[in-house]
Batch of 3 targets.
Target 1
Amino acid sequence: MRTPSWVPALYLGPAVLIMSAACLYPVLTALQLGFFDWNLGTPWGSAVGVGWRNFESAFTNPRVWSSLRTTLLFAAVCVSAEMVLGTALALALERPVRGTAVFRTLFILPMMIAPVAVGLAWRYIFDAQFGLVNAILGLFKIAPMGWLAEPQLAFAAIVIADIWQWTPFVFIMMVAALANVDASVIEASRIDGANGWNMTMRVKLPMVMHVFAITLMMRLIDAFRVLEVVYVLTFGGPGDSTEILALHIYKTAFVGQQLGVAAAISVLLLLVVALLSWAALRLSNPLQSER
């Protein structure tokens, strides 16, 4: 008996409505706000329509593009390092050895900590006077460094914090992918004389490349939405050397009280994240390769 066409709509309808209310409404509201000059705490009736002026101000502001470049560099460095480290750890702990369960548990702990707590922890670790990093450098007779006071070092600090927190996500994804590799293929390659390196590079990794690509896209999307760790760790400083786009939007909205301009900038961020999401959906569709 064929299922009536209204049955899927009946089951999917409530979820679609809830997701529409939770996702589309804020997006449409932000888009609407981009056409008005409105101050937080005042009635919406006092908002003044300004047309495309907020969008022109946003897209011609050098700090917006500087923040976008910082975000792109941050995402490229962090995600590249996380993919390499997470995959390497997954390969290292793929086979069951003594203590594997303990190591896997320890590796995923950073991902479970709240981002604000991560930012606070690394802020103390990089403290110029009492931080753990400078204390370790002192053991090697290296002078203390102002990790959060110099642009290059501050950028390195937020990169290290992000890598520490999100490498476990890549690790979990790749461990799950490697666990599903067909054992008969591995055994066949071993019989054919493949050593460990060849087996990893020519058999295992190609078979999990689909999961690798999806994980890469998910991490890129998350890297563009990072806010709390950078907010707590550097607040975009020194200067604007670590001011990523999400933090610039926050400052524009709640420090500069330019809510309309902030909404216009958020549209730019939305377009970038939407493009990455579209790519992730295409990569995650197993039927794409069959078309």
Target 2
Amino acid sequence: MTLTSTPLSKGDSEKNYPIWITGAEALMDSLKVHGVKVIFGYPGGAILPIYDAVHKAENDGWLKHYMVRHEQGGSHAADGYARSTGEVGVCFGTSGPGATNLVTGIATAQMDSVPLVVVTGQVPRPAIGTDAFQETDIFGITLPIVKHSWVVRDPSDIAKVVSEAFFIASSGRPGPVLIDIPKDVGQEFFNYERILPGEIIPKGFKRNGEINGSDINQAIKLIQESSRPLLYVGGGAISSGAHEEVETLANNYQIPVTTTLMGKGVFDERDDLSVGMLGMHGTAYANFAVTECDLLIAVGARFDDRVTGKLDTFAPSAKVIHIDIDPAEVNKNRRVDVAIVSDVAKALSKINEKSFINKTCNTKNWLEKINFWKNKHPLFVPPQEGEIYPQEVLLKVREFSPEAYITTDVGQHQMWAAQYLRNAPRRWISSAGLGTMGFGLPAAMGVKAALPNKEVICIAGDASVLMNIQELGTLSQYGLNIKLVIINNRWQGMVRQWQESFYDERYSSSDMSCGEPDFVKLAESFGVKGFLISERKQLLNEFKSALDFDGPALINVRVRRGENCYPMVPPGKSNAQMVGYVNSKS
């Protein structure tokens, strides 16, 4: 007798369970009950049973699957989806090279605390450990870069594993998890029973407990005693959705706010209290502020090296309050005076509630000093002459598309975008911790898939964009209305800047001019509209129409080749020892 499955359909919520289906169908139903509507992936032999179930799910109308052109693109797209929505992103890849191609995207998400559920196909159970065709131990390979992982050896475990995966990925400090499913597990029939979200709490995990009231009181006391406080806000505040709480605390006590690259958008950078981004390529006034503050309030930040510079000179005279959900980050790089291990939004809310009782903090002189720094050392203002300055392009993006969701690749263009753009919460999406070239374009696909009615712009470099340029095919296939703006200086720009500054201008393997494609023709070969802007009059007159084009487009902007990104904190120096922060021509 031949067994056939009973496919789950639109009316499956009314079915009685258990139901006789395959492991692959159970996986798809488990994803459905956890709210998954979008998946990014690429098929292959070991994951074909799951893709057969994907086909049924799409026919049933509850799922949209985006076939990317490379598995790395799928992982970054799921990452962009998660960052822009706060939901868990999902991507698929097959065994062997399909799975290993996902590794960079998984590591990117781990470093930036992004919730992903990554599903990989695996060779059948009897073949595991035999060096079968396209077999790799993706479970072992990814152990250092995931929160948790599973190899599913029994289809009856699928519902439980998926429930645990979504809980772990999104709880506490978010991050990626991996589910490896052998091919025969996806094909095997069994009696499936649903497990709904929240029904299972994985062992070792617990709900967040109460915040220690004495820690809150100590934090408030330090704030009230401070005359030069500074809020240092990182990506944990974005993950927590704490932008309103940060704004309230800043306004209550008139505390200036600086953000990390990951924290951009959590506080309105047009506000007088904003001092922009700090660190290696932060504003001069942010770096001076952190050097001279007497109280540093670290909110969802981890004191990473690109922020602190020489660690023992970072906020050298300041007491430190550290608010973070991850206890492993507290006292890891910097000893603190008050530690509040909690969801950031909840902790700030408690501080704000108690602050109304006895609010005292005189920061008038401190704010005047910061305004003096802002006026003396503003960001570079490009002159309207000669070749196009890369900074000009970002200023035009800011002018023409102030509400856009921005993704970036990695390099000089990323730092210029961070310096000059002003972003609302979750509208700044950039690989910060891992610094992954090629991140921007596929991440923009994820944002657009999540938010089809929002404007999405990817800021890329001519070197970075080539890492995942094949995803133009995905834009074309699905009509994803994304604008890919290439800041094209025909260099690996940041590498060249370091070679100029620290390696006596020995430009080893960083010149991209030889072999550069015609980006406009390349885009059009994929069915994507291409624009070339090489003169200032085009930037002034044609750039906006290119951004307004109805459909996916690549905009190649040729800029000055030798422009450097300043300010810059040289390696091994304190944040106050910046170079290039005087407002003058480079």
Target 3
Amino acid sequence: MIERTGIKQMRKRKFYIRKITALALALGLFCTLFFSSPLMANAAPDENKTTEQSEPKQPADSLGLTAKSAVLMNAETGKIIYSVNENQQLPEASITKIMTMLLVFEALDSGKITMEDTVTCSEYAASMGGSQIWLEPGETMTVHELIKAALVGSANDACVALGEHIAGSNEAFVSMMNQRAEELGMGDTFYCNCTGLDADGHVTSARDIAVASAELLRHEKVLEYTGIWMDTLRDGKLQLTNTNKLIKHYNGAIGLKTGTTSKAGCCISAAARRDGMTLIAVILGAPDSKSRFADARKLLDHGFAKCELTDVSEMEVELPEIPVVGGMEKTVGAYADISGNVLTEKGKGKEIKAVVELPESLEAPVEVGQPIGVVKLMLDGEEIGRYDICSDRASEKVTFSAAFGELFRGLFVN
């Protein structure tokens, strides 16, 4: 009897323990839901918690630039190293002449025009305001002289005369400029003229100017003009002085073009080359000429201090044979032409890793040289280069005739 009573008491204790435990769990759940509700979340904030508003924010422009928009780009790779409002559409003043000169040098390379061509100034070309060499209607100059006038003296009349010589009319030339910008992926750009004189709708971005500048620099002959500090025209009667002061005062400066109007402010696309690496610093909307050059210096200094080009031509990457489903050849080999330079932080070139991306198999038919995958060059989790992997041989699709032919050759050909 005593034993049964003890058992009953134990069962009662367990029953109450379960009840108390259930009640505690329910109370805990209630508190969690109540105090985490939007109503209570604002009622008693945690004083030790750092709110989003109180977190220190990194400045968008750590170099302290004065310009509205800026870009620092490596010309060889197209890699943007530093930017502020890189896609903001803004007027560009005479930096427009970078695209004008790109079309001129492309026309020279194609043989459409020559440096010795004689160009006759039209009434319209002579009517240009702003920077000019005061061409008279009917006056003639060579293409060489007009390029010098445009790139050293920023002459608007010279640009229009060159555009008319290439395209037949100013309007046709401006249309060519817009077409070329589209081909280069310059989505923020629209040209209304070839000079950069203020016009509604004539806009670009710092990124787009960097792209056009890099393309112009592919024509090495342009450096024979952009590097001129002082020169003359008209048998020494007209003196030209480069508006780009960096040419004389910055180590490695090779060009390219300045621009100033009331709408655009002070602008520049400045290129400099050191140790085989070319950087392009674009400044749009600086408050004055001194600030424009100071901003460009900051960008170029930053790039040369931080970056270098690393040659990856000697990098070895092992690529496997790839199975071909339904092919006469059961596998094909793979190769990748890894060559040239990539942009890296100084001293980090040896840390580059190659990541191979290939499918497990290919569907026949496969052509020789067909892209079948990629090699990505990675540094600190960022892709810095990409190369196609291609098949080194073909594999035709299995057909009855092809299979019969193989069988026949196997039987009768040694």
